[in-house]
């Protein structure tokens, strides 16, 4: 069976060039970068090179790059490491649509007595910047707002948000896990204090992340240990993965144009055909300010898990914000925060593309999706009710 | 990815008896679009008042569709009296089991069947004397009680898996806990649990069991009286505990310990347990 992988916001294929770059560091060059001898020293040189590549990708200085184990660690470290540096500040601002790597840290902090402001979004997933302006106070220790939403691909106006926050002198962090590699990021042209990225979302393996920390930002290490990462993150460097991430960032920079032209065109093609061929289909989120690779659509009167499993049966890998896929009973917090009507929220499907996808694959999806939705609508009691209400039968 | 059995996959990919019956003898519907799953069940009786034809329409996930399909296969050819006895466990068993988180799909099947039978008999589903416990999903105390009894549920999480109650805003969790406690007490009275035979434990099993028993049977009761108890150490069959709160300066604590804690631990862990109090 052929596999059509369109779940790249969940994880991506490791680029062959990345794997190749990593392999020698499992076997031949196994030295510890901290060692005094040549054997460790030659590895340290490669780690430094990788750091430069990541810095170059982010438009940052290599000294501002801290390697972590994943995006979740970067997010945790940013929040806890900042608040720890400002013990008197007991207020944090975030949004209602963050990834759990932010959301659950905020829930934890709220239990610890912090005041948490969760900014709301409108029906297209957009923030109200006036709500942000009104929420910032003297005691705000950190504002953390995602760059791009993982479920809908909606992009927040991060630079504008950052202006508002920096005017008040408050540290600003952004979870850019979904944005990195899909839209240009340039830290030297920005005032973002901290930014998280994750390797496996941009064709590096799982198990490596980065926290960018702008020079001069107050930060207490979250992972305490040795002097690695200039004392900002203890633990022996994950050398092969760091080298892999360096290569992946190099490639991501090269592919950025392709991502925003060819991949975007594929996504738009998929969206256009789905909307044309399947009635009662809605696109979730702001279609203008959106990642070039992401399409979240809802099919009314059917349930997402059923769609996913029928797609999966044909080798098509996507994901859903429906309740049943997550094991919880309510649709995703993102769709709920957006107020997506319940006729549609349970039937949401996310297609997320990468540079490895082709037009043939889009055609394969477009060919097979309409009969799947039709089959499930034929089983669904509400579809016929709906048709009746429309006087169509 | 859910660990569905081959039978679930089969009934999902090739559901049996999908559709509607034009002039059914009975029709039942449970769930809603808002809840994320719903089942509409139709049946027609034939000779000897046996179910001759049965059809369904379902909105929901793979296990909801498979459970509906399985239900129709199970009840075909049965009399209503026989069909009434079908439980959600029967549906799950027919499918070779369901993931626990998905058991509510089998409960939905059973409820739709009951609704359809009541519809045939011209009864309104009895709606008196119930209280909506879970406002997010509209689940009543009666439904929760029944799921606890039929499936031997013990935790709020399990109740959510089987009925969906408590799966939304979570505000009803204390109420669900109270129902579990009430129903389990009733169940114990009806059929007291068999005395556990003297078992051979590993040390780790014993320690775990002691901790569980303290947490479940003993500490809540002490807390209700403003006291508390801390497990200090376990050495063989000797269990060292310290009393906290009101209990720690209660002159009758010696009695509390010997009679209450020891009895409970002997009942649930081992006849040989001896409890010692550690004084600060």
Number of individual domains of chain B: 3
The fold-level CATH name of the largest domain in chain B is Sufe protein. Chain: A
The number of helical elements of chain A comes to 13
Averaged pLDDT of chain A = 95
Count of β-strands of chain A: 12
Helices and strands of chain A: which structural class? alpha/beta
Biggest beta sheet summary of chain A: 7 strands, mixed
Uncertain segments of chain A of ≥5 residues (pLDDT<50)? none
Strand arrangement in the largest pleated sheet of chain A: 2-8-7-6-5-3-4
Give the termini separation of chain A: 38 Å
Helix content of chain B: 40-55%
Give the number of domains of chain A: 2
What fraction of residues of chain A sit in β-strands?
A: 5-15%
CATH class of the largest domain in chain A: Alpha Beta
How would you name the oligomeric state of the polypeptide chains in this document? heterodimer
**Structure annotation, total helices of chain B:** 10
Structure description:
The complex is a heterodimer of chains A (393) and B (280). Chain A has 2 domains: 4-9 and 257-373, Alpha-Beta Complex (Aspartate Aminotransferase, domain 1), CATH 3.90.1150.10; 16-252, Aspartate Aminotransferase, domain 2 (3-Layer(aba) Sandwich), CATH 3.40.640.10. Chain A has 13 helices and 12 strands. Chain A has helices at 16-22, 38-58, 71-85, 100-111, 129-135, 158-167, 239-277, 304-313, 323-326, 333-338, 342-345, 359-379, 381-389; strands at residues 4-5, 65-68, 91-95, 115-119, 140-144, 172-175, 194-198, 209-213, 281-283, 294-299, 316-317, 348-352. Chain A has a 7-stranded mixed sheet with strand order 2-8-7-6-5-3-4, with helices on both faces. Chain A is globular and about 75 Å long. In chain A, 52% of the residues are buried. The model of chain A has no long low-confidence stretch (mean pLDDT 95). Chain B has 280 residues and is of the alpha+beta class. Chain B is built from 10 helices and 8 strands. Chain B has helices at residues 6-13, 62-75, 80-84, 88-94, 103-120, 141-151, 156-163, 173-190, 203-224, 253-268, and strands at residues 26-32, 37-45, 51-59, 132-134, 139-140, 227-235, 238-245, 274-277. In chain B, helix 10 links the parallel strand 7 (238-245) and strand 8. Chain B starts with 5 loop residues before the first helix and ends with a strand. The interface between A and B is medium-sized, with 27 and 31 residues.
